[in-house]
Write a structure and sequence with these properties.
With about 170 residues, the chain is mainly α. Helices cover about 50% and strands about 10% of the residues. It folds into 2 domains: about 90 residues, no CATH class; about 70 residues, DNA polymerase, domain 1. It has a two-stranded antiparallel sheet. Helix 4 packs across helix 5 and helix 5 packs across helix 7. The radius of gyration is 18 Å and the shape is elongated.
Length: about 170
């Protein structure tokens, strides 16, 4: 199939993915990113493909990831590089998740730990604005007592911010 390792970094690898792999990769990319004017320099295609693998359990070559990004309409900064950066920004859904990411993701605290865990959990109800739905999800996942405490604290801050906006 591939003549040498250089072929594995070519965007045409995307076409060789199975349909279910393409679908999962396309869905993941569309959920995570949107077009931006500035280059996203936090992670290159190589790092992003590993984020995809961590979230879905599906391994893809760097080339397949680059091809999927092109297919989704994202432009690379410099196609001559082995690992591409793109003109993208992270898509953050509105609601509790968004509030937490904006306020606590980089905090060195129990709230920061909770939010980073929440961010890594691909099944977390990121679009939800419903306390019960999120609480039920956390119970089903058997989160520790400290995580549940952090959730309740973060929810109180979130709820307060919503009431202040009204």
């Amino acid at each position: 199939m591939y003549k040498n390792y250089e072929d594995l970094d070519h965007p045409c690898c995307y076409e060789n993915l199975k349909d279910n792999e393409k679908e999962a990769l396309d869905k993941w990319i569309k959920a995570k990113f949107e077009v931006a004017e500035k280059a996203y320099n936090k992670r290159s295609s190589y790092g992003l493909k590993h984020d995809f693998q961590r979230d879905t359990g599906i391994y893809v070559y760097n080339g397949a990831f680059k091809g999927a990004m092109l297919n989704a309409g994202f432009k690379p900064v410099d196609e001559t590089q082995l690992n591409w950066n793109f003109y993208i920004k992270e898509r953050i859904p509105d609601g509790f998740y968004s509030f937490c990411i904006k306020h606590y993701k980089h905090n060195n605290s129990i709230l920061g730990d909770f939010v980073r865990d929440m961010d890594k959990d691909s099944k977390f109800p990121k679009e939800s604005k419903d306390k019960e739905e999120i609480e039920d999800y956390l119970y089903i996942r058997n989160v520790c007592k400290e995580a549940m405490k952090a959730f309740k604290r973060a929810w109180n801050y979130y709820d307060k911010s919503i009431k202040e906006k009204k």
